[in-house]
Amino acid sequence: MENLKDFIDENRQGFEEENLIPGHKERFLHKIGKTGHVANRPVIRMNRAIWAAAAAILVLLVAVPLVVTDESELQSPGVSYSQLIKDKSTEITKQALLLNPSDQNTVLTTLGQLEFESVPFEDQLPDSISPKEKEELMKSYYVPKLEGIERLEKYVAALTKI
Amino acid sequence: MNLLFKNFIKTPSREEVIYEECHKRLFYTSLRILNNSMEAEEIMHDTLLKYFDREDFDTIRERDAWLKRVCINLSIDRLRKRKVEEGMYKSEELINPVIENEYVENYSFKGISVEDVKNALNSLASGYRLVLSLLLFEGYDYEEIAQITGLKEASVRSQYIRGKARIVEILESKRSNRNIN
Fold first, then answer.
1. DSSP reduced 3-state for A140
2. How far apart are the CA of B68 and the nearest CA of chain A, in angstroms?
3. Can you tell me the ipTM of this complex?
């Protein structure tokens, strides 16, 4: 009787619920574009009759953010994700040292995986992209990392309370 | 407004169609081996890029088998690169004979959640996780896993039995903790 196998087979879907990191498809299309694979990009055709409507929407999309500016967004370009990760990492490492060797090893290995970057993401971005695009890519890359680190921080905090 | 959207005709490229069809499967296969979603995403991308570099297959089944195999191989390469000392290929694991434990085989999963099993799997050393993942999720047998990993069949079997025993140990300890609380 293969209980573990049976359990997994019966609950297979539950094992595949982890969310992919937002922007995975865009990053793939970007990579594929770089390697020259993309044969036929999506074709968009528009009737002339609706050009005016499209232009109006475009104007709205551009103008509204200029009028309604989120203050937090003004602060975000200065955010150094690497520094945030580094700070949190130092804190978690400090806390992890209070744990037993097995938990300590698990925490530090996970932390290592979360903060590992053979080449900093920022250095991998082409110069040709705009600062806004750059910021968005950085955000979609680092925010899940930071979320993971925060989860780990909570986990360590829970362990140290036991 | 409806008129506006009706007039947009979007034809996804072949790459996008295949990406939509296959990416999740590849992601989870890699994630189970690597236990790191960012690396799993990279492997999923690299697998598909390799696929687009070659000629198409006659059947979807052939294509999927190829994709799965490449995804696993790339994930194993990534594991090796990590050089984690978790004893993935430690030969001393073969020194002591591995006896299949009846307790492990007949362990009841009553009250155990998917999350518990997931966490237990993720806490295993990468070598065990790899073997268990290939056997339990990808449907390979000992012989095939031996070919994929370059391990001896006996070693695969021993890693599987030990990994499974470890999972039961973790789950049982969790269950006991719950009962205490």
1. helix
2. 16
3. 0.80
How many CB pairs below 8 Å do chains A and B form together?
115
Superfamily, domain B91-180: PhyR, sigma-like (SL) domain (1.20.140.160)
Per-residue pLDDT at A45 exceeds 50: no
CATH classification of B9-82 is 3.30.565, yes or no?
no
Provide the pLDDT for residue B144. Answer: 95
Percent of chain B with pLDDT over 90: 60
Position A54 confidence tier, pLDDT thresholds 50, 70, 90:
low
State how far the Cα of A35 lies from the Cα of B49, in Å rounded to an integer.
Answer: 9
Sequence spans of domains, chain B: 9-82, 91-180
Chain A positions touching B4 (Cβ under 8 A) are: 50, 53-54, 57
Nearest CA distance, A71 vs chain B (angstrom):
30
* Residues of chain B contacting A38 with CB distance shorter than 8 Å: 13, 15
